[in-house]
Amino acid sequence: MTLPLPVIDLAFDRSHIWHPYTSLADPLPVYPVTGARGVYLELADGRRLVDGMSSWWAAIHGYNHPVLNQAVTTQLERMSHVMFGGLTHEPAITLAEQLAELTPEPLQKVFFSDSGSVSVEVAIKMAIQYWATLGETRKTRLLTVRSGYHGDTFAAMSVSDPVTGMHRLFSGVLQRQIFAESPSCAFHDPWNEECIGDLRRKLERHADEIAAVIIEPVVQGAGGMRFYAPRYLGRLRELCDEFGVLLIFDEIATGFGRSGKLFALEHAEVSPDILCVGKALTGGYMTLAATLTTGVVAETISSGNPGLFMHGPTFMANPLACAVAAANIRLLLSYDWKSKVAGIERGLESALSPCRTMEGVVDVRVLGAIGVVELENPVEMGLIQKKFVDRGVWVRPFGRLVYLMPPYIITDEELGLLADAVTEVVYETLAESR
């Protein structure tokens, strides 16, 4: 059955709807989508765009996937939602079992929430309550590195980069956290201990007030799309143990294969005390996140006063979201996703390499299904977005970064179209700026 096309009132949208990271007074153009299938977004004017963003890194299997559609349909016939306080259900139990099995063995306790940013809030609350239960009431601050990004809610903003990040306006009202220099060792660089020297010095100086270190393992996402040496994580784990602080990994962007490993922490074979996952967890179908922790952390929190973890999102462990997340994980593990991601990595490396010789390009870097072209100067979003749409692709840069995170199901031809569009648009944009 062919569904009728929806009527999209762009004038109302422009006047009343506030889109993310834009001005309501002078909003950026938006492109009306009427459908999505496979790796394609279908626009109201009939154009089809190859999606290079996986809808902000979430739709790893593309759109309208029959397996995931069926999981939602089946669950919807049973129930769409019930509160998680005092009740439980099979989709939540199944998903928790999968997460506990796939993540490092110590991470056996699963707390569900409704977005990645909230999962970070939960992790921070866990870390602070853990130490408070042990009588260490001074340990309330977080240590992190610059060029990081952990979300747009308040505690998450406080541990995102305070200078290059998006939240400078709120610096006076956010909790003052401790920032070390970002890892200076690139992914393939030989290890240099000074790469983590500043963080070590911060731990030496402030360990008695630090509850946890929070970091995005191996890949720093929206704070700069930087890839750093896995050995950094191994040393970080050792330092956290040495100075008596917890370690939180934020795998919201990197989880479920994006970096070439199921979780980016596997590049270093390191386990944190607390792990945040989200985004690709449901394959981009709906919002869901989880914070996993160890038995030690959970049991310590549960042993003190009040002995409860006081957090409970209304849509925590939503059955629809849990059902599609469980199906998404089964789907990912049902095929050789590592080979698919490795193929994307090779394709991006080859197709984006011409950008390295362009004047105005600082760096080109690729890891797993992530490709980044870093420019000397920020792009003008409205103009560059139109250039991409006119070439039949959906790419949404930010700042100085033009990047790709395509769905894993993308074909070589579709990937070539995406990467060639990036090369052409970057060249054209740089030429126009001279």
Automatic annotation (TrEMBL):
InterPro entries: Aminotrans_3 (IPR005814), Aminotrans_3_PPA_site (IPR049704), BioA (IPR005815), PyrdxlP-dep_Trfase (IPR015424), PyrdxlP-dep_Trfase_major (IPR015421), PyrdxlP-dep_Trfase_small (IPR015422). The keyword Flavoprotein does not apply. The modification N6-(pyridoxal phosphate)lysine is found at residue 279. One of its GO terms (cellular component) is cytoplasm. Substrate binds at residues 56, 149, 279, 312, 396. It is an enzyme of class 2 (transferase). The record marks 21 as: Participates in the substrate recognition with KAPA and in a stacking interaction with the adenine ring of SAM. One of its GO terms (biological process) is chlorophyll biosynthetic process. Its cofactor is pyridoxal 5'-phosphate. The keyword Transmembrane does not apply. It is found in: Cytoplasm. Belongs to the class-III pyridoxal-phosphate-dependent aminotransferase family. BioA subfamily. PANTHER family: ADENOSYLMETHIONINE-8-AMINO-7-OXONONANOATE AMINOTRANSFERASE. This is Adenosylmethionine-8-amino-7-oxononanoate aminotransferase. It comes from Chlorobium phaeobacteroides (strain DSM 266 / SMG 266 / 2430).
